[in-house]
Amino acid sequence: MMKTVFNKQLPLVMAIGLASQALIAPLGHALALEELIVSARKQVETSQSVPIAITAISGEMMTSLGVNEAGDIALYTPNFTWHTEFGRASPQPYMRGIGTNNFAPINNGPIAIYQDGVFIGPNIAQGFATFDVERVEVLKGPQGTLYGRNSTGGLINFISVKPQIGQEASGYINVEVGSHDTRNFEGAFGFGMGDKFAGRLSLLRATSDGPFDNINPESNGKAGIIDDFAARAQLLFDNDEGLSILTNYHYGKAEPDTAPFKQVGLQDPNSYNPATYSYEDACANPGIGSGCTDLYTGFVEDDDIYKTQKADDFEHVDTEGVLVRVDYELTYDMSLYSASSYDEASLRRYDDTDDGPFGLENDYYADDFRWYSQELGIANQSDISMWHLGAYYYNEKVDGAQLWTNPIFGTGEGNEHAVETTSYAFFGQYDYDFNETWGATIGLRWSYEEKDVQKYNGFLPFISNPGNEGDGPIFSLADARAAGGIDEAHGVTVGTPTKKDWDQITGRISVDYNTEQGHLIYASLARGFKGGDVNGAAFLDEYVSGGLGQFENGCSPGDATNPTASGSTRCQSSVDAFNAKLEPVDPELLDALEIGFKGDFMDGSLRVNGAVFYYEYTDQQNTNLIAVSGASAGAGNTASLTNAGETNMPGVEIEVIATPTDEWYLQFNAGWVDAEYDKFEPDNSGNQISLTPKTQFSGLVRYDFELESGAVIAVQGDVSWQGKTYFQPTNEKYLEEDAYAIWGSRVSYASADGRWTTALFAKNLTDKEYYGSGFQLDFLGSKQLKPGSPRYVGLSVNYQFGN
Prior knowledge:
Helix content is 3%, strand content 51%. It is built from 3 helices and 44 strands.
């Protein structure tokens, strides 16, 4: 309601944050509830008055929970999961059953990731390390009005600590050592420069040998390595006459390896046939450590989930960009703003896909992104109403290649691609208070999006070397030729360039009611839209011409049934199938009905927030591995990006925080969603949505002991539990994980002046063994499972200096 809006000190459209529903902040020596000022609707208001379901975690609580990368927040947010298939790049967040299992670098998901209010498009730039964070905010449900792009299911905004005019030199240093030879350093320095300028510098360096032992004798002996460097420099100008300009330069470099997977062999190790070079019979009891092997190598996986035999693969991600935010108060009640950003990101990844010692399949990714966004807006506020008008532009270009090689058979395939995405939108929102109890909001957004596939070429190189890092990474067609050559007679298939565009009107309408006790009840209808996408893993597959052994399928020039393509030795069926996979899939739409409640009780020592929702989700974009028809080998798979027909999902979530005394802090979150595909051809209808447990909950208990000196010893325990999860839409056996819980603990000592904090903490305290994701390589006779992280014990020292 407008009566909760604050005016002059925070400009109306200073909308770098979103909102917070139960943000935890320091108060005295304990953690306590605080009535925060937020900007969920791009207006300044108190958190409990925002009629939107949001979970937020303060920077201090992130430290207490051991949150040090973007995906860690999922453990403490109901109906939210975060997975990666490689290192930290290309994450797959799912919120209330909305997400994508597609991890190709050029594809976008339906959960938008923001850094300081700027949309991060490429998924390779979304799995960043977190540092010098004021808070992170998870806004749930379709954001079809003010934030719009690719936020079908919601968005996540990581908000950095900003410079302050007139601030004396101040900041912090945080040092952490821990298991797996972990060494982390984080620090920030803020300073004023007269009465109009202020700056802030932030830095992070994080390294770890990783929790996995690599017993491959040709490896370096470690896996799960972390090697991160990140920096941020901010400069704020404020003339104290309504004009402020914030410039934010940011840089990141991550060089981990790709996380190891465990191989579930599907073949009987006693069934080798020299004539076919394969283990032909199915294994009776597949599983980790069961003694089963894959189709070709005879490799038997170790039963220790923290041991691997993969090659020393890697993932190198570099990001760099600048944001300029301008706010100008035209009058006391009206403001203008502009947010301009330009970013670049590059990926070089080598992944030992089968994770065995023989390099059965090696994947290479090389992509270079650049993206630019511009948002302009104007807002006006009175005692009973508020309106916003704005325009948004986004452009993203990517050039790259993806290749896989099979050193055993000396074959491989790949693609080169250049794709441009252009999007723009116009939006408006009007909020009105009818009286002290009733209010309403209506907002609309018109969005246009275009996918321009400027180049998408496929080829099948015949690589003579194993393709491991020591033999030289293969990141382009030129690399493939140099490494062993392309059969030039077989040639490169040039995909037909294609362009497709869509437009959509989305929006939100809500009604809110404030009770006499100050509790908020709201109901809303909203629509979210995600533009169409291109198959980022389109290959030529095993539709090839004669003379290639097991890939023979008999096409020939002039054959009326199965001819070769004109001017090529490739089968026409191969070229047709390849071009069909380049056709962008349809956009996603999500219609959502939500009823929510927010209330504080017991003189502000108990907070209960909850929401009930119902989703109608159409044309969800998912990747399926589908058997290749027509390939004489009969065992090939192709990655196909398709639209799930329809999914209807009811759900509920609740967040409770209690501070019964100054010493106690209690928190409980829970969520349930009926996440099943109602219609998903060819045969996934009725299956549980991938990477989405139906039930989740988390809890935290903290007790503070205040010493006579004023110092505080805090003891904390936390737990996160989730129900059974399937890793793929197929819900196939072995690619699943039963319900499990992850426990954590922390003991800290804070000095009386609050400058020094020392903490001993543990994540996955009970050393629970579990798997977080997986995929199938049935054409190689195996399935792959990614182990979760084992127990981690760390010691941190934090020093705050200045005011």
